[in-house]
Amino acid sequence: MFEPRQIAPEDRLSRKQMMVVIAMDLLLLAEVTLCVYWGQQDPENLSVIFLKTFVPSAVVTLVATRLLMRRFQTRVVE
């Protein structure tokens, strides 16, 4: 019924890009865990503490990931 879509070789992630994605996933999980932990230390301000710590760290992680993904992008010779 449904067949997997074929991905062209030039559109696939390189090994370095796969490692960047895995590292980003692990970093985001660690950031969420730490920010929730720090926030629960003061339950009345949990939301404020979480947002002040998680949003900046997540933005830095995502920007760094984007830069590294572009840097490790395979170049197609035409």
What does this structure look like?
With 78 residues, the protein is mainly α. It has one domain (11-71). The protein has two helices and no strands. The chain has helices spanning 15-40, 46-71. α1 (15-40) packs antiparallel against α2. The longest helix has 26 residues, at 15-40. The termini are far apart. The mean pLDDT is 90.
Task: Looking at this protein, list some descriptive labels.
78 residues, mainly alpha, elongated
Number of extended strands: 0
The helix content, as a percent range, equals 55-70%
**How many whole angstroms does the radius of gyration measure?**
18 Å
Question: Which overall shape is indicated by the principal axes computed on the Cα atoms?
Answer: elongated
Q: Output the number of helix runs.
A: 2
Average predicted confidence as pLDDT: 90
Please summarize the sheet with the most strands.
none
Number of domains: 1
Structural class: mainly alpha
Order of helices and strands: HH
**How widely separated are the two ends?**
36 Å
- Low-pLDDT ranges: none
Strand fraction band?
under 5%
